[in-house]
């Protein structure tokens, strides 16, 4: 008798969800990306016990109509791409249609939303939205609810039905810190968006919309007076942001943030190229601090290479690295 079987759907669902959602920070990342893709200018994140007990992400983005809300939590549903060709020119932060489904399968989940474009014939009015609960993958009844335009997602008791993943979560403070530094990445990249984090009902981060990038650097690094502004463009690729003076370096490469088309990414080759450009201005185990924003034509970037979208590939990485090095050398000249 053969040993290979078709896996039960419950196992398939949890395996897929586990690739996208590892911890509370994964949840917050996916929800904040959705908010930014929806054009939000205000994002509020409320956490209980580091997000292990509860996560609420509320925004003032475009919102969803009833039809979209009914299917947004189902697997492989997306409003951001529709054809295979779209994968070659992705401009949104999210695109796979996995996040809400993955989150709703491993939590007590609910989502409510209101779009000002809701068709009046479907029962919408100036403040009428819809709410649908999904308990560990099983959707409840949708119901009307009064709310302003935007979307609110509530996630409770993450991984309560997934003990193998739950036992790997760390202390509430540790999980909170992961979320805090994750949100700082979005704060730096989106100066036209206000961010608020509440932890156990206490405000722990506030970045109003009028905070420019320099002010937001202060939130991330404690000060901004030792950063040098960088702007460089060549071959339709631009490099902007701030890098620290050589004498104000860090002992960790983790203090240098990369963004490709406003997407925070991990980019080892980029880090190595910047280290090379600083040359003898830095000791062997020192690294610059800062935030660099690269604008690269969408067709030159493949973002569909990592389950959590933390890495990208370039069609001509050598060119991008060359331009990056020139930008840093020009800054330090």
UniProtKB/TrEMBL annotation:
Keywords: DNA damage, DNA repair, Endonuclease, Hydrolase, Nuclease. The keyword Hydrolase applies. It comes from candidate division WWE3 bacterium. One of its GO terms (molecular function) is ATP-dependent DNA damage sensor activity. Belongs to the DNA mismatch repair MutL/HexB family. SMART domains: DNA_mis_repair (SM01340). GO terms for cellular component: mismatch repair complex. This is DNA mismatch repair endonuclease MutL. PROSITE patterns: DNA_MISMATCH_REPAIR_1. Residues 217-333 form the DNA mismatch repair protein S5 domain. NCBIfam families: mutl. SUPFAM superfamilies: ATPase domain of HSP90 chaperone/DNA topoisomerase II/histidine kinase, Ribosomal protein S5 domain 2-like. One of its GO terms (biological process) is mismatch repair. InterPro entries: DNA_mismatch_repair_CS (IPR014762), DNA_mismatch_S5_2-like (IPR013507), HATPase_C_sf (IPR036890), MutL/Mlh/PMS (IPR002099), MutL/Mlh/Pms-like (IPR038973), Ribosomal_Su5_D2-typ_SF (IPR020568), Ribsml_uS5_D2-typ_fold_subgr (IPR014721).
């Amino acid at each position: 008798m053969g040993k290979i079987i078709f896996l039960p759907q419950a196992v398939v669902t949890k395996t897929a969800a586990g690739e996208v959602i590892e911890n509370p920070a994964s949840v917050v990342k996916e929800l904040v990306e959705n908010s930014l893709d929806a054009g939000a200018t205000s994002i509020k994140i409320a956490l209980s016990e580091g997000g292990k007990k509860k996560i609420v992400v509320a925004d003032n983005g475009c919102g969803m109509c009833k039809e979209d809300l009914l299917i947004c939590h189902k697997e492989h549903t997306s409003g951001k791409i529709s054809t295979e060709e779209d994968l070659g020119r992705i401009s949104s932060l999210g695109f796979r249609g996995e996040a809400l489904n993955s989150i709703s399968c491993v939590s007590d989940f609910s989502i409510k939303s209101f779009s000002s474009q809701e068709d009046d014939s479907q029962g919408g009015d100036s403040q009428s939205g819809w709410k649908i609960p999904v308990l560990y993958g099983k959707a409840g009844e949708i119901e009307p609810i009064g709310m302003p335009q935007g979307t609110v997602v509530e996630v409770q008791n993450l991984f309560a039905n997934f003990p193998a993943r739950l036992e790997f979560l760390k202390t509430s403070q540790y999980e909170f810190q992961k979320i805090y530094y994750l949100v700082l990445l979005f704060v730096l990249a989106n100066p036209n968006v206000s961010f608020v984090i509440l932890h156990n009902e206490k405000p722990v981060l506030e970045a109003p919309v009028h905070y420019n990038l320099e002010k937001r650097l202060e939130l991330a690094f404690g000060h901004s007076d030792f950063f040098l502004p960088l702007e460089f463009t060549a071959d339709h690729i631009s490099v902007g942001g701030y890098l620290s003076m050589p004498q104000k370096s860090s002992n960790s490469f983790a203090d240098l943030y990369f963004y490709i088309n406003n997407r925070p990414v991990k980019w080892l080759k980029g880090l190595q190229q910047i280290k090379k450009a600083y040359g003898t201005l830095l000791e062997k185990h020192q690294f610059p601090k800062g935030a660099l924003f690269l604008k690269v034509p969408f067709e030159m970037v493949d973002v569909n290479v990592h389950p959590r979208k933390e890495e990208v590939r370039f069609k001509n990485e050598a060119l991008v690295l060359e331009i990056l090095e020139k930008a840093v050398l020009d800054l330090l000249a």
